[in-house]
Amino acid sequence: CVCVCVCARACGCAVGVAVVLLRQDFDIAGDYDAMIPEAEIIHVVQEIIHELDLGSFLIKVNHRKILDAVFDACGVPAGKFRAACSCVDKLDKLSWNEVRDELVMCKGLDSAVADRIGQFVDLRGGEELLEKLRAFDELRDSEPLKQALLDMEKLFHYLKLLGIQNTVSFDLSLARGLDYYTGLIYECVLTGEHSLLDSLPSLGSEGESEAAPPAEEDDDEEGPAEERPCVGVGSVAGGGRYDNLVGLYSRSKVPCVGVSIGVERIFSILEAREVARKQEVESRGERYVFRKCDTQVFVASAQKNMVDERIKLCGELWAAGIKAETGYRTLARMLSQMQFCEAEGIPLAVVIGTDELEKGEVSLRVVDTREQVPVKREDMVEEIRKRLAKL
Q1: How many CA atoms lie within 13 A of 304 on its CB side?
Q2: CB–CB of 129/174 below 8 Å?
Q3: What does the pLDDT read at residue 1?
Q4: Comparing C-alpha atoms, which of 110, 118, 108, 112 is closest to residue 70?
Q5: How far apart are CA 136 and CA 119, in angstroms?
């Protein structure tokens, strides 16, 4: 069973303040063979982030059973596994020294135990990391670890078949603090366009925005730049396997694996990119036009009995792969139609009337400059493509 839904979660980020955070969830529910659903979900994440053109990105993966085996080998008491996990989960925002201090001073771990954890969570790479983990003497007898490493081998095999292994990193610092995860966990982080992202809020473990800390506290916690490679970037998606969560609210156990796409975060990134584009365009002394939609061509007419012709033109443009639309009224003023194009940022308009029909032409109008030229009907698609290529 595959479930896709939009979720809203309310969270309090300060006294008297509540924020509703939107996310898009994609989940696969049911008892299936290991790592096949996980590989598909990672592919879905890769496809979404690639299609949104958010820049370079990396999908980090880890396994909760590997983390548990590491914590056990390092001497973390079983009752403090989740507390330690919650601390390690902050490594994308804090330096290791800050996380180590929290492990020791806030979670009560021995400093030697924290140091041993640090040796493991610094490990990252690809499939070769599996053999490196098997070589550690303190992990060799862990049965849960052996099973988790077999799972990871299957995962990398499927990722290779899907052709996306180069976008995935096996990262032992990935912990995802929520305690209901039971197997594979993953998170997608942006690795480029830092100048646009530095001013945005970081993301929590569900691929959502978190309230940024006050400036004075942030300054106090800021570590050396080289120790904080991911600070200010954050994740845009995250999730993992949660086999026991649904069973808490139903009479049957339903294994699940899923991912949350951070809608709020992505909107913020796209908005920041548009602001940067506006500044670049205006710095060249050019007029900035904000496109509110993807429509490339608006089909217009100011004469009666042209609705059929407008619809025919839309059909021709759609068949050619050009994003076109027309008004839903049989008659509209030309001025209103052009004002709509300007407001929505639609770059071109195709105008049809009785004169154009008699000549076998259309009038092609550049909305921004108001330049209008006649074009033969059979040349319309090619001329529009040429114009669009120059935009």
Answers
A1: 0
A2: no
A3: 58
A4: 118
A5: 12
- Indicate the pLDDT class of residue 209, thresholds 50, 70 and 90: very low
Residue identified by tokens 């590997």 is 66
Sequence-separated (6 or more) residues with CB below 8 Å from residue 376: 360, 361
Quick one: pLDDT band at residue 270, thresholds 50, 70, 90?
confident
DSSP labels for 30-76? S---TTHHHHHHHHHHHHHHHHTT--SEEEEEEEHHHHHHHHHHHT-
How would residue 234 be classed by pLDDT, with cut points 50, 70 and 90?
low
For the stretch 341-370, pLDDT in tens is 999 999 999 999 999 999 999 999 999 899
pLDDT of res. 287: 75
Distance CA 205, CA 62 (A): 14
Range from 53-67, 156-170, 190-204, 373-387 carrying the lowest mean pLDDT: 190-204
Looking at this protein, which amino acid is placed at residue 249? Y
Write out the E strands in 51-198: 57-63, 124-125, 168-171, 184-190
Whether the model clears a pTM of 0.85, i.e. scores above it, the answer is no
3-state class (DSSP) for residue 349: strand
Q: What is the dihedral of CA 376, 377, 381, 383, to 10 degrees?
A: 10
- CB contact at 8 A, 259 and 239: yes
Burial of 152 (0-12, 13-18, 19+ CB in 10 A): buried
Residue 256: strand, helix, or coil: strand
**Strand bridging mode 124-125 / 17-29:** unpaired
* 94 backbone dihedrals φ, ψ, rounded to 5°: -120, 160
DSSP letter at 103 equals: I
**Mean pLDDT along residues 39-58:** 92
- What strands, in cross-sheet order, belong to the sheet with 361-366? 324-326, 297-300, 348-351, 361-366, 371-376
Specify the DSSP class assigned to residue 20: E
Of residues 211 and 2, more confidence is placed in 2
C-beta atoms surrounding 69 within 10 Å: 25
Nearest Cα residue to 344 out of 291, 273, 283: 291
Q: What is the pLDDT of residue 208?
A: 39
User: Running DSSP on this structure, what letter comes out for residue 105?
Assistant: I
- C-alpha distances (whole Å) from 247 to each of 180, 200, 227, 254, 255 are 11, 36, 40, 6, 9
